[in-house]
Design brief:
Elements: H1 7-33, H2 36-44, H3 48-66, H4 71-90, H5 96-114, H6 124-131, H7 141-175
Helix pairs in contact: 3-7, 4-7, 5-7
């Protein structure tokens, strides 16, 4: 049986729904404005030594955040992560080798960290020397590192979103009883 709501509640409910939609659409617009090219340009302006330090810091901080997740948690959000990174992949032309290498290396590093087979901090020079295939040109290494960072940040955000969504559903369920 549906509840009838009075005019005051209708106005409050409609305002609440409108504010939620506005807030959520603002978030979508903010995400659409992130341009990976802009971030890569910032990195490209640095010396190679500074590039290594910056990408190393970003990647290792994200790995530190992600080291305690389980494979089950990773699998539960992997589709969302792929959708996020696919969006950015579509914005960058001739980026296929970077994406392929970046996705593969990001997953391999993350899985090894999760299994305690690799300690943090991960040395970026080792990745450059032993992890990149010959398909990736040296000038694309930092693009790949930025892609790895983007992937890790997407994983972190998806995990946070999933946790908040689960709590919201649980609270909603409790309040309906």
């Amino acid at each position: 049986m549906k509840k009838n709501i009075n005019a005051v509640n209708v106005e409050e409910l409609s305002s609440s729904i409108s504010r939620t939609m506005e807030r959520d659409l603002t978030k979508v617009q903010e995400v659409l404005d992130l341009d990976l090219n802009d971030l890569i340009e910032i990195i490209d302006r640095l010396s190679n030594d500074d590039k290594d330090k910056v990408v190393s810091s970003i990647i290792n901080k994200q790995l530190e955040k992600l080291k305690s997740i389980t494979m089950e948690q990773f699998k539960s959000i992997s589709r969302d992560v792929d959708e996020i990174t696919d969006y950015y992949a579509s914005k960058k032309e001739e980026f296929d080798a970077v994406i392929e290498e970046g996705d593969y290396i990001a997953n391999q590093l993350l899985f090894k960290v999760m299994e305690n087979k690799l300690e943090i901090p991960v040395d970026i020079s080792i990745i450059k020397k032993y992890c990149f295939s010959t398909e990736l040109k040296e000038k694309q290494y930092y693009d790949a590192f930025m892609w790895i960072a983007l992937r890790y940040i997407a994983i972190s955000r998806c995990l946070i979103w999933q946790k908040c969504d689960e709590e919201y559903k649980k609270n909603k369920e409790l309040s309906s009883k």
